[in-house]
């Protein structure tokens, strides 16, 4: 097969939550495949990610924004188009988790997680799709789901609701936009070693229980998402619509 189908040279991607963890791994993966990356985060600078991408000879624009509300989306789109002239790929990665027993879970922990993990994801995808329609020629939207799009989890009610929602709206948007050449898919990472899971990795019992259930016998790493995100961002996946791809070392196969 022609491996050029995976090439992202000349493509422009927005990646949210780019400063660390999975967002950093995917930003670097997209840049390695040739894409220019507009990285969004709410920290002061995504210096490490910028350095990694520029070290590859890639183009990186950092846009500081807090995605707890949908208010910054328009400005992020404008800055990206201003710098790179267009948009081809959106990776909706920024997300948070709050852990507490369901019996005592607060409204704030519900609303905060739902706002960034699913509301912002939808309205960012809507903004990207409007831009793709304006440009013509389609585009790629990749949402970051979770094992808890498929399973119930424990002590993470709003996270489970949000990630189950991400899988649902990924299908909905794919259904509406596939005819325009806009592919909407999701990646469901398994248990990955990032800040997001630092607390459970630090708990010896949880760590052992989780590792013992992963057929690959290791936590996933940010670079494990590079191949899957490049595939879903590239012409190689043009007939893949509305699917949530687990990248989980076999977790869901158990
Ligand atoms: P992380 O906490 O290491 O990184 C999250 C990134 O999002 C950070 O760069 C952070 O600064 C940014 N972010 C957080 N709140 C923000 C806000 N309000 N505005 C803008 N940016 C914000 O987490 P991660 O593990 O890399 O998670 C990335 C995504 O993958 C999340 O959606 C998460 O739910 C999902 N996920 C992670 C795992 C895992 O095991 N780590 C598993 C499944 C899904």
How would you describe what is shown here?
The chain has a single domain, classed as Rossmann fold. The protein has a seven-stranded parallel beta sheet with strand order 3-2-1-4-5-6-7, with helices on both faces. Helix 4 runs parallel beside helix 5 (about 155-175). With about 250 residues, the protein is of the alpha/beta class. Helix 5 (about 155-175) links the parallel strand 5 (about 140-145) and strand 6 (about 180-190). About 40% of the residues lie in helices and about 15% in strands. It contains eight helices and seven strands, in the order E-H-E-H-E-H-E-H-E-H-E-H-H-H-E. Nicotinamide-adenine-dinucleotide (NAD) binds near residues 43 and 192.
Q: Could you give a short description of this structure?
A:
This protein has 254 residues and is α/β, with parallel strands linked by helices. It is built from eight helices and seven strands, in the order βαβαβαβαβαβαααβ.
């Amino acid at each position: 097969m022609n491996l050029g189908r995976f090439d992202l040279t000349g493509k422009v991607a927005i990646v949210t939550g780019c400063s660390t963890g999975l967002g950093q791994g995917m930003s670097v993966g997209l840049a390695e495949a040739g894409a220019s990356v507009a990285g969004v985060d709410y920290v002061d600078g995504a210096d490490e990610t910028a350095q990694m991408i520029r070290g590859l000879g890639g183009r990186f624009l950092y846009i500081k924004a807090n995605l707890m509300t949908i208010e910054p989306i328009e400005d992020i789109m404008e800055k990206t188009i201003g710098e790179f002239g267009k948009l081809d790929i959106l990776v909706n990665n920024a997300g948070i988790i709050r852990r507490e027993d369901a019996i005592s879970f607060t409204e704030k922990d519900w609303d905060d997680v739902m706002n960034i993990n699913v509301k912002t994801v939808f309205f960012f995808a809507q903004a990207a799709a409007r831009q793709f329609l304006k440009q013509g020629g389609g585009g790629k939207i990749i949402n970051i789901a979770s094992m808890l799009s498929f399973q119930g989890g424990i002590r993470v009610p709003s996270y489970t609701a949000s990630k189950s929602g991400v899988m649902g709206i990924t299908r909905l948007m794919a259904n509406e936009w596939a005819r325009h050449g806009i592919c909407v898919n999701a990646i469901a990472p398994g248990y990955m070693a990032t800040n997001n899971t630092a607390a459970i990795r630090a708990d010896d019992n949880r760590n052992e229980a989780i590792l013992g259930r992963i057929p690959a016998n290791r936590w996933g790493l940010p670079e494990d998402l590079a191949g899957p995100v490049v595939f879903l961002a590239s012409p190689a996946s043009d007939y893949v619509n509305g699917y949530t791809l687990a990248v989980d070392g076999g977790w869901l196969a158990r």
